[in-house]
Each structure stands twice: as structure tokens, then as C-alpha cells.
Specification:
The chain has a domain of 95 residues. The chain is 64% helix and 0% strand. The chain is built from eight helices and no strands. Helix 6 runs antiparallel to helix 7 and helix 7 crosses helix 8.
Length: 161
């Protein structure tokens, strides 16, 4: 084994050792103590009696992230959702959720694109087009027209600032 590899191995072994031994931390480890290993099911069963109120509590609905309070986010989101209310409510609940989350992601990406010195309109159009393609059976001409209109509105809002 070359000397370089030996020193690297020694350094690695030293870095993996704990900084303070268990005795200094006030822990006593005896070699006679049986090692207990639990599987996932046993851990869940042991936690149930200890925390019954936490396990039975209803899960809180997901909160909207803080970036949704940003006025730029709200403005771009309102431009994107313009004239799509009727189409949105015709979608099934799974597609509605997908449409909503992808719409928020597209809005954030558009904000990032608008923050750059050079606005790349083709990228904005591509993002909006991919987002609208979630809607099944959407007319190709309606899609392109809607993408163009929304992109123009977003860019004109960005230029105003």
C-alpha cells in the first residue's frame, strides 16, 4: 500500500471517530448490556402508547409558502389564471391540484426570468405552454393564442417596473 493511501486511510479513520468519548458525555456503556434492535413495526407500536394524542390528531392542511404574499407573484399568478376559471373547475380534482402546483412553480420561474437583465420571452412562452398542456383536449390554436396573450401581459408588466 503506498504511503499516500496509508495517510489518507489514517486521516479518514481519525475523522470517523467521535470527538468526545461516551464517558465524557455522561453515558455509560457496558459490554454486557444487551443490544436491542427494533424493526419499523415495533417502533411504531412502542410509540403509540407514549403519544396517542399526536398519532390521532388530524393533519393540518398544507400552508401556502411565504413567497405567495409577494406582489409580483400575485400579479403574475392573476395574469396566468385569467380566463381559465371555467376550464379549471371542469378538471378532476387530481388534475386541478397538479395544475395549481405547476402554475405556482411556473410563476416562480417567470419571476426569476424577469429578474435577469435580459428577458427571455421564448422561455416564458415555453413555461406557460407546458403548464397549459396539463389541460386535456385543449385546442392547439387556443393554446398558442392564450400563451401569446399571457406572455405579452407579463412582459408589459415587467417593463412597467
Amino acid at each position: 500500500m503506498p504511503i499516500d493511501q496509508v495517510t489518507r486511510t489514517n486521516k479518514l479513520e481519525k475523522s470517523l471517530q467521535p470527538e468526545k468519548p461516551a464517558v465524557e458525555l455522561g453515558l455509560s456503556i457496558s459490554p454486557e448490556a444487551p443490544r436491542v434492535e427494533f424493526g419499523r413495526d415495533q417502533l411504531i407500536e412502542r410509540a403509540k402508547p407514549a403519544m396517542p394524542e399526536l398519532l390521532s390528531a388530524p393533519v393540518a392542511p398544507a400552508l401556502r409558502p411565504a413567497y405567495t404574499a409577494d406582489p409580483r407573484f400575485k400579479k403574475i399568478e392573476s395574469i396566468l389564471e385569467e380566463d381559465l376559471g371555467e376550464i379549471y373547475f371542469k378538471l378532476d380534482s387530481q388534475r386541478q391540484e397538479e395544475f395549481k402546483t405547476k402554475g405556482e412553480a411556473v410563476t416562480l420561474k417567470i419571476i426569476n426570468l424577469l429578474a435577469k437583465p435580459k428577458i427571455k420571452i421564448k422561455k416564458i412562452m415555453h413555461l406557460i405552454r407546458q403548464w397549459l398542456k396539463i389541460i386535456p383536449g385543449l385546442n392547439k390554436f387556443f393554446l398558442e393564442q392564450t400563451v401569446k396573450i399571457k406572455t405579452d401581459k407579463i412582459v408589459s408588466e415587467a417593463v412597467k417596473r
